[in-house]
């Protein structure tokens, strides 16, 4: 059948009282949340079904992205923070990995393009990077591509 909208779309439309998958920073992962408040069609506040905490609605993707914004750099540059290997990854890294894993599940690794600076990739394209492994191109522009790897977002030179 063609030209038919998926009916599931209406059923999954967010509404107060309904469940939504969201990032819980307290639990440090994506969990089922109950929608508490909405503005228009946008979910603004949710309550975690696991820890019962009420907080702003955030997706794992948003958490992962926030971590790659330069202004939010809060890791101290002191030597003490680098002395021991962390037992657990920061939540931003875990969020990025989750988004990466979900994206990878829908992509064909056999079609990954080997990364080279001369490459001019498109948004959504799968790359194979020597150091970082598989990465999904998020945005492209100005000689650089923002790519999501298992360890987080990286800026890669393109079209050189
Ligand atoms: Zn929670």
Rg of Cα set: 19 Å
Taken in chain order, the helices and strands follow as HEEEEHHHEEEEE
* Low-pLDDT runs: none
Biggest β-sheet: count, sense, barrel?
5 strands, mixed
Strand content: 25-35%
Quick summary of this structure?
This protein is of the alpha+beta class. The chain has 4 helices and 9 strands; from the N terminus they run αββββαααβββββ. The termini are far apart.
Set down the secondary structure blueprint.
Blueprint (H helix, E strand, L loop, with lengths): L7 H4 L7 E6 L4 E11 L2 E7 L5 E3 L3 H9 L11 H4 L7 H14 L8 E2 L11 E4 L3 E9 L2 E6 L2 E6 L3
Parallel strand pairs: 5-6
Antiparallel strand pairs: 1-2, 2-3, 3-4, 6-7, 7-8, 8-9
Helix pairs in contact: 2-4
The structure holds zinc ion.
Q: Could you describe the 3D structure shown?
A:
With about 160 residues, the chain is of the alpha+beta class. The protein has two domains: about 45 residues, SH3 type barrels (Roll); about 70 residues, no CATH class. Helices cover about 20% and strands about 35% of the residues. The chain is built from four helices and nine strands. A hairpin with a 3-residue loop joins strand 6 and strand 7. Helix 2 packs across helix 4. It starts with 7 loop residues before the first helix and ends with a strand. The mean pLDDT is about 85. The structure holds zinc ion. Zinc ion binds next to loops. The site of zinc ion (ZN) has 8 residues, from loops.
């Amino acid at each position: 059948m063609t030209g038919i909208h998926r009916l599931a779309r209406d059923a999954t439309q967010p509404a107060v009282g309904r469940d939504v998958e969201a990032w819980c920073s307290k639990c440090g992962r994506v969990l089922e949340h109950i929608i508490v408040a909405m503005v228009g069609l946008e979910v603004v506040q949710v309550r975690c079904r696991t820890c019962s905490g009420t907080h702003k609605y955030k997706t794992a993707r948003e958490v992962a992205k926030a971590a790659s914004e330069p202004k939010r750099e809060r890791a101290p540059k002191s030597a003490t923070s680098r002395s021991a290997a962390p037992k657990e990854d920061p939540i931003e890294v875990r969020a990025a990995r989750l988004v990466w894993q979900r994206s990878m599940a829908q992509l064909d690794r056999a079609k990954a393009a080997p990364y080279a600076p001369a490459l001019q990739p498109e948004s959504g394209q799968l790359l194979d990077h020597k150091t970082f492994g598989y990465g999904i191109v998020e945005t492209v522009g100005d000689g650089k591509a923002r790519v999501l790897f298992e360890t987080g977002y990286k800026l890669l030179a393109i079209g050189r």
